[in-house]
Amino acid sequence: MERYDLIVIGAGPSGLSAGIEAAKAGASVIIFDENEKPGGQLFKQIHKFFGSKEHRAKVRGFNIGYQLLKEADEAGAKVELSATVLGIYQDKEVVVKIKEGIKHFKADSIIVATGAAENMVPFEGWTLPGVIGAGAAQTMLNLHGILPGKKVLMLGSGNVGLVVSYQLKQCGCDVVALVDAAPRIGGYGVHAAKISRMGIPFYLPYTIKKVEGTDHVTGVTIAKLDPSFKFIEGTEMHFDVDTVCVAVGLSPMSQLLKMAGCKMDDNPRKGGQVPVIDEHGQTSIPGIFAAGDVSGIEEASSAMIEGRQAGIYAANYLGYIEDKLMKEKEDELDKALDGLRQGMFAPSNRGKKIEKTEEGIDISNNLLAKGFVADEEIERFPGVVHKLGIHPVMECTQNIPCNPCQDACPKKCIKIGSKITSLPAVDESVDCIGCGMCVASCPGQAIFLVNENVGEGMAEITLPYEIYPLPEVGEKGIALSRAGHPVCIAEVVKVRTGLAFDKTAVLTIRVPKEFAMKARFYKKEKLAKSV
């Protein structure tokens, strides 16, 4: 039997962060994970993170994963992969299946950071091959390079459904629709907006009535729901698809904690069965801590901070960190975590209908219902301005904890202020130099550079672009609106890439100037008749 000061179960963002902090304090640490690769969800996440510098904002998830692995190695924490923890027993004995063998480990403290599992909803045909979780689709795409299908319908409009829909499009899949039983979109508006302008339609409140096929998915029928969540006859719509992705939330994987005898709480606001923990993340069993999604569903950035806290608390429990130092570190991390738990999507606001921003501006109802801000709504937000010459236009309309645009602008054209959830605004007294750093840095891809008049009745729009192969200078395609509808012919006048842009190309298109505030995406294909 091997002994360690601390056993961490789960090598995801929370578990790795916990192991790093405890090992840095001097504890001997081993981290188990059942997967062949560490990092949990991070290595599936190719998008850029929200938050601020301290939260690793504008860094892509898989790069954060590499950073954490490097930190864990440097701190001396051992990471054991293909290691499935079978149970936590008396006196903190942990039984682990490592490849084909069974091993026993003991520690003076345990941190459980097992994360969460995807939920599923039953409907006719839900067991057919081709009906998969959105997370499974993301694993296939980003870890194994396999397309889950060619034509996909997404069920669920939370951040997972929105992000995976975008990544499916990036990989060449045709996402025919995004469907949700709720009357409004559940995830970040900027995520919804970036897939709306690619032409993916939203259907709310709709859900799946039937998936067709015998040995695999061949189609799906959706129907609208009344306020009692019953199908409204006559509203059925059919789509020919080969894949249905389900993104209807997550449930904490808390079975090991329950098995260990920890006191549990059935808490729907936290996603299901979660352990009862004190202010230090300690369960009802002294020395056993919980961190990350296993104690309540949140974003990965929050999970990393919770993991760091758990590592510090465990190190204090083990005697490696004195109370005073623990309190100092705790206060610092509490402040960072509090910053992420602000704004419209704060845990305290779950289930609430927010009607105004923190600045007192009416929320875009069109964004909530259809996935894009309507032309008649966009002008009321502080990031949308008109001025001579090139200038930023920031279509960020919800209070989300995020501020990399403010840091990215070398001329300080963009201002958010000290409150991380404030809507970005343009400092009209400062001239933009058109460098494109704000465009590439925005995790929500909600920033554009606009020159409303470049002469000869034309305007230029600089926008983020992550669809490969990239367009070529001089080619002509279609400019799409926020709703994903063709608005005009567009000519590509500049394509910029670079290390500082981190694989987000900065694309400049030229359009008739009457479309300067309407054209928001470029489509590479033959010109449509509707243009």
TrEMBL record:
<dbReference type="Pfam" id="PF07992">
    <property type="entry name" value="Pyr_redox_2"/>
</dbReference>
<dbReference type="InterPro" id="IPR017900">
    <property type="entry name" value="4Fe4S_Fe_S_CS"/>
</dbReference>
<dbReference type="GO" id="GO:0016491">
    <property type="term" value="F:oxidoreductase activity"/>
</dbReference>
<keyword id="KW-0408">Iron</keyword>
<dbReference type="InterPro" id="IPR051691">
    <property type="entry name" value="Metab_Enz_Cyan_OpOx_G3PDH"/>
</dbReference>
<dbReference type="InterPro" id="IPR017896">
    <property type="entry name" value="4Fe4S_Fe-S-bd"/>
</dbReference>
<dbReference type="GO" id="GO:0046872">
    <property type="term" value="F:metal ion binding"/>
</dbReference>
<dbReference type="InterPro" id="IPR023753">
    <property type="entry name" value="FAD/NAD-binding_dom"/>
</dbReference>
<protein>
    <submittedName>
        <fullName>Thioredoxin reductase</fullName>
    </submittedName>
</protein>
<keyword id="KW-0479">Metal-binding</keyword>
<dbReference type="InterPro" id="IPR036188">
    <property type="entry name" value="FAD/NAD-bd_sf"/>
</dbReference>
<feature type="domain" description="4Fe-4S ferredoxin-type">
    <location>
        <begin position="386"/>
        <end position="419"/>
    </location>
</feature>
<keyword id="KW-0560">Oxidoreductase</keyword>
<keyword id="KW-0411">Iron-sulfur</keyword>
<feature type="domain" description="4Fe-4S ferredoxin-type">
    <location>
        <begin position="422"/>
        <end position="452"/>
    </location>
</feature>
<dbReference type="GO" id="GO:0051536">
    <property type="term" value="F:iron-sulfur cluster binding"/>
</dbReference>
